Amino acid sequence: MTALSLNDLLMLLAALTGAGLVGGLIAGLFGVGGGTVIVPALFYAFSVLGLGGEANLHTAIGTSLLTIVATSWRSLRAHRSHGAVDEGVLRRWTPWVAAGGLVGAAVAGIPSMEGLAIVYGVCVLVVAIQMGLLPERFVLRPDLPTGWGRRIVATVIGLLSAMMGIGGGSFGGMTMALCGRPIHQAVATASGFGLAIGAAASVGFVAFGWDAPGRPPYSLGYVNIPAALVMGLLTTLVAPWGARLAHSLDKRVLRRAFAVYLLVTAASVVLKAL
After folding, report:
1. What's the DSSP call for residue 108?
2. Per-10-residue mean pLDDT for the chain, 274 residues long?
3. Alpha carbon 191 to chain centroid distance?
4. What region, left, alpha or beta, does residue 31 occupy, with left being phi > 0 and alpha being psi -120 to 50 degrees?
5. What is the spatial distance between Cα 103 and Cα 83, in angstroms, rounded to a whole number?
6. Where do the domains of the chain lie?
7. Measured distance CA(171)–CA(126) in Å, rounded
8. For residue 42, what is the enclosing H or E element?
């Protein structure tokens, strides 16, 4: 394990602080995982500073998932205080979402950094299309699936979210909204999905990356502990500000601008990894 010089440590801390602040703001503004900011920021920070190697993207994703635990927990508490969470959906979907998160962690460890970057880019592209092109109230079906449909959809939500390093807001909230649920209820309930995904998948990323080569210093499996602590604290503190800010800004313009950012981010991560 290579020790960091003081200069590298300060540069890494600056990158983590910036990513944590922006990631928390994005999570609060749009109800999507701050991992859409944290993952590329960490990936680039590790690469620019010459830390780690072939496991840098895996570590960025695993670290992002651990930060999501704290952010989602605080978000869930806040939404519950306003009665916005559908507790029945949360209770029935959470076990399958968590199982999907654990499977996603295992699957994420199989491809190379290049392969994982392509998966990440495609998933970010889907989120960008949903945010930039589809109206908020676009509905595909009148209600959420039940039975095996629920089990399959919930597992896929957890799997994809784990492979991207994001919370439940992106795919979980999108699924609930597309199934006719009010957007505020979708975002609120999906914050509980994020807690389950982050907890299950981060344990998986630690276990499946335990002896992996090419990780940055101070990593436990595919989770970088200093980065998780700094960004977990900052995203938790900043997310409520983003939520308040969302009520005073033109959200349609913001959504489209963020969709453009996601497209650029997806392309840059893929190109950087190839």
Report:
1. H
2. 68 80 73 74 82 88 90 81 89 96 90 82 82 76 92 94 82 87 84 91 94 89 91 81 70 74 79 71
3. 11
4. left
5. 31
6. 9-273
7. 9
8. helix 35-48
